[in-house]
Amino acid sequence: MKGLPITLSQLEDLFARMGEELDVEDELLWGYFFTDKDKKKLAPVRDELVRAGYREVALYQTDDETTYFLHVEKVEKHTPASLHERNQHFYAIADRFGIESYDGMDVGAVEDNEE
């Protein structure tokens, strides 16, 4: 795994900051990112996550052409603890499939047409 895992304390801080712009008690659009130098290694990760109800957003190469990113998303309601559990699950998926990393998440409001 590349980098340090995201801690529960970091997620608690994230939720505190998010509360200034988003209703953290509501469902939000969560994006999750996985990386590897080999695009083909990300395909089975994508397939498993799509089967689990995530939507593939993109599988793209970085500008410097050294790494591929898989971006999936799902409308979900999280607390810092539930997001921490989700991250642990995704770190385990990255390990199981032998990819470079689960690279973290982003979040935004749910648009009316995305549900």
From TrEMBL:
Protein name: Regulator of ribonuclease activity B domain-containing protein
UniProt domain Regulator of ribonuclease activity B: residue ranges: 23-107
Origin superkingdom: Bacteria
The organism of origin for this protein: Usitatibacter rugosus
